[in-house]
Amino acid sequence: MSPLVARTIATGRLELLPLRVEYADEMAVALSDPALHTFVGGTPDSPQALRSRYERLTAGSPDPAVSWLNWVIRLRAEACLAGYVQATVGYPDEGPFAEIAWVVGTPWQGRGIAAEAARGLVDWLGRQRVRRVVAHIHPDHTASAAVATAAGLAPTAEWHDGEIRWTLLNG
Predict the structure, then answer these.
(1) For residues 74 and 81, is the Cβ–Cβ distance under 8 A?
(2) CA distance 137 to 140
(3) The pTM is what?
(4) Whole-angstrom Cα distance, residue 121 to residue 135?
(5) Are 108 and 116 in contact (CB under 8 A)?
(6) Which domains does the chain have, with CATH numbers?
(7) What is the pLDDT along the chain (171 residues), one digit of tens a residue?
C-alpha cells in the first residue's frame, strides 16, 4: 500500500484541513490554555515553536514505513481553527494501522467538536483501508474517553505509558 496523504475531510459542521505551517499563529491562540496539558504534560507552544513543529510535521516522517497525517479543525460557521486531529499510520504485513489523537481548544469544548472530528477521521481512515485504529487515553480523562467512544473505539486491558489503549478494528 502507498503511504497515505492527508486530504480535506468534511463533516456536518467541520472541515479537517491538512496541516500547513501558516496555521501556527492561529493555532497557538486556539491551544493557549495550559489546562489542555493536564493529562499529557508540557505547556502551550509559542507561535514560533508551533511553526517549527509544523515544519517538521509537514515534512513527513523520516521513516518511509510511517505516514504522519495531521489536520487542523476548522469550524465552518465561525470560520476559525479550534484544534487538531492526527494519525500516525504504519504499514505492517497484516495491514495498515493508525494511532490517532485529538485536541480541541478550551473555548470550543463541550460542543461535540472533538467527537465529530474524531469520527470524521476514523471514517476517513476506514475508507483508506486502515484496519486498526488505536488511541491512548489517560484513565481520568473522561472527556477524551467519550470522544473515543463516539468515534467507535473501545477500551482494552492494555496500558501504554500510563494510558489505556482504545482500539477499533475495521473489516
Answers:
(1) yes
(2) 8
(3) 0.95
(4) 12
(5) no
(6) 9-169 (3.40.630.30)
(7) 578 999 999 999 999 999 999 999 999 999 999 999 999 889 999 999 999 999 999 999 999 899 999 999 999 999 999 999 999 999 888 788 999 999 999 999 999 999 999 999 999 999 999 989 999 999 999 999 999 999 999 999 999 999 999 999 765
